[in-house]
Specification:
The protein is an alpha+beta fold and 450 residues long. The chain folds into 3 domains: 272 residues, Bira Bifunctional Protein, Domain 2 (BirA Bifunctional Protein, domain 2, 2-Layer Sandwich), CATH 3.30.930; 39 residues, no CATH class; 95 residues, Rossmann fold, CATH 3.40.50.800. The protein is 29% helix and 27% strand. It is built from 13 helices and 22 strands. The strands form 6 sheets. Strands 3-10-11-15-14-13-12 form a 7-stranded mixed β-sheet. Helix 2 packs across helix 9. The chain binds adenosine-5'-triphosphate (ATP).
């Protein structure tokens, strides 16, 4: 059973140190959140799992980590300056501002008035200046998506890796959007992270590849604990497609606040590479691209079997890390009735758990026991599975509850018998079953479990 409402998740996140309001001690900053000690581990594990499936498990995708600050040219030729807008309306009565397409019955959500201004486009990109002189030439944007930096590095990657199509470039990183209205905790924020793949294919292969990537992405979500029957595919209507898209299918998840986009899988055609290319008339570009006089590069490929330069089509699965955190936590959350009490359990898939195991000495002040627990912690940490902690609180029941709530799959308890027999108890988060295991067999047990 997922969480009953978003408040349950918000409360767990704050209480246990997953997510905090950003700039909190100065009153907070809207639409920004900070990931705490457990949140950063969960987020890193989600990103590693995506990276592994995209880059390490395959041989046709390379990674990239490009800059966040972007030259104006990049976002001009990409079309974002002109089209990356949302319709903004003002309420004339209470002076609040809203996204016109998110209003119910064209009424102000704050005061209920229908005296609103006509919608006008509001560009979502954050602007800044680079360097000490603040003039036109220092102007820059914070990127609104990681994708453009992948496109403008297309030639660098091919030249340095000798890749041929189909191949992809994967990137995980921050993106910034000055969203008009914020929503549901970390669902819609102004600074967030994206996991984006741009997969370059021969024109004509794009539709087949689009289907392939949709299936891949559903499989990946399932492996993170968000099963396919909780996801819905939404075919974005033609009139709502972004300027670059031939077809976009959104992967929708039933968040605590409703069914909304978790990831978008778009066919971006040859629009972006074409737009950023010089000498466009020498290229057979199918999209209506902007005439480019500033680029010094031709973002096309010519392989031995090709007669002409080809601008590849692009399939883009683009997932938000923050929405992934929310969906994965929501799916893992359950409240369980026990005989005379209840417990909250976060049944995260073990590879995503912020803490893989807690080693707990039964008695806080027993030096021998604590020493042995420290040794076991180091031994397990060395396995490289992720974070293992020593929890020296002396209250075993409380420790188990805490670790159930934060999703730690295994707890290892060191007791008096451990000192005599060199064995410990391993407790499983989901079944609460306890097993006695010899310390010498513990590594093998962990490796098998994870
Ligand atoms: P929405 O319609 O919800 O605003 P979008 O269609 O603008 O989303 P894309 O441009 O397709 O989103 O971005 C790809 C992914 O990045 C989204 O599926 C989402 O997971 C994430 N994302 C986009 N905007 C935000 C945001 N403001 N806060 C958190 N995640 C976001």
């Amino acid at each position: 059973m997922p969480a009953k409402n978003i408040e349950e998740l918000v409360s767990l996140c704050k209480r246990r140190g997953f997510i905090f309001q950003s700039n909190e001690i100065y009153g907070g900053l809207q639409g920004l959140y900070d990931y705490g000690p457990l949140g950063v581990e969960l987020k890193n594990n989600i990103k590693s799992s995506w990276w592994k499936s995209m880059v390490y498990d395959r041989d046709d995708i390379e990674g990239l980590d490009a800059s966040i600050l972007s030259k104006q040219d990049v976002l001009r030729y990409s079309g974002h300056e002109e089209t990356f807008t949302d319709p903004l309306v003002d309420c004339k009565k209470c002076k609040s501002r809203w996204r016109a397409d998110h209003l119910e019955q064209d009424k102000c959500p704050k005061c209920g008035s229908d005296d609103l201004t006509e919608p006008r486009p509001f560009n979502l990109m954050f602007k800044t200046n680079i360097g000490p002189i603040d003039d036109g030439s220092s102007f820059a944007y914070l990127r609104p998506e990681t994708a453009q930096q992948i496109f403008i590095n297309f030639k660098n990657v091919i030249d340095s890796t000798s890749k041929s199509i189909p191949f992809g470039i994967a990137q995980i990183g921050k993106a910034f959007r000055n969203e008009i209205t914020l929503k549901s905790f970390i669902f819609r924020v102004r600074e967030f992270e994206q996991m984006e793949l741009e997969y370059f294919v021969e024109p004509g292969q794009d539709e087949k590849q689009h289907e392939y990537w949709l299936k891949q992405r559903l499989d990946w979500w399932e492996a993170q604990g968000v099963p396919k029957d909780k996801l819905e595919l939404y075919e974005v209507p033609k009139k709502e497609l972004s300027h670059y898209s031939k077809r976009t299918v959104d992967i929708m998840y039933n968040f605590p606040h409703g069914l909304e986009e978790l990831e978008g899988v778009a066919n971006r055609t040859d629009f972006d590479l074409g737009s950023h290319s010089k000498n466009q008339n020498e290229l057979n570009i199918s999209s209506k691209v902007r005439d480019n006089k500033d680029s010094n590069s031709k973002l096309a490929i010519k392989e031995p079997h090709m007669d002409n330069w080809v601008v590849p089509f692009v399939i883009e699965p683009s997932a938000g890390v923050d929405r992934a955190v929310l969906a994965i936590m929501n799916e893992a959350y359950r409240e369980e009735k026990l005989e005379d009490s209840s417990r909250i359990v976060l049944s995260l898939r073990p590879h995503l758990s912020p803490i893989k195991a807690a080693v707990i000495p039964l008695k806080k002040n027993n030096d021998e026991m604590v020493e042995l627990a420290k040794k076991i912690k180091s031994q397990l940490q060395e396995l490289g599975l992720g974070r293992v902690i020593l929890e020296n609180t002396g209250n075993i029941g409380k420790s188990y509850r805490r670790h159930d709530e934060i999703g730690t799959p295994l707890c290892v308890t060191v007791d008096f018998e451990s000192l005599e027999n060199s064995d410990i108890t391993v407790r499983d988060r989901d079944t609460m079953k306890q097993e006695r295991i010899e310390i010498k067999d513990l590594n093998a047990y962990f490796l098998k479990y994870f």
